[in-house]
Design goal:
It contains 5 helices and no strands. The protein is mainly alpha-helical. It has one domain. The N and C termini lie far apart (31 Å).
Length: 95
């Protein structure tokens, strides 16, 4: 999604511009610390807010732009994400 967004907004994409690369790195760091682990629900359904308010809005803007374009670029990933949205989030495991 970041690559699609970067290509259209910053002229980057491969490799990502510095701003988009930093955003993607932030997202990966937050996912690594997610209490749900591999059973993580989609961010929209997740009861735990991992991102700071500023990064949440920025990530939402990226998803809002790239989401409708994902089936054209990555149809299998889009289908998998759509199916993941159907799962209900469980309580995070105790640490």
């Amino acid at each position: 999604m970041c690559r699609i967004y970067c290509r259209h907004h910053h002229g980057g994409g491969n490799p990502l511009c510095a701003e988009c690369a930093a955003d993607l790195d932030y997202c990966f760091r937050r996912l690594d610390k997610c209490p749900y682990g591999a059973e993580k629900p989609t961010c929209k359904q997740c009861p735990t807010h991992c991102y700071s308010a500023r990064m949440r809005e920025k990530t939402r803007a990226i998803m809002r732009f790239a989401g409708p374009r994902m089936p054209l670029h990555h149809p299998w990933l889009s289908l998998r994400h759509w199916l993941d949205r159907l799962k209900k989030p469980a309580a995070p495991p105790a640490r």
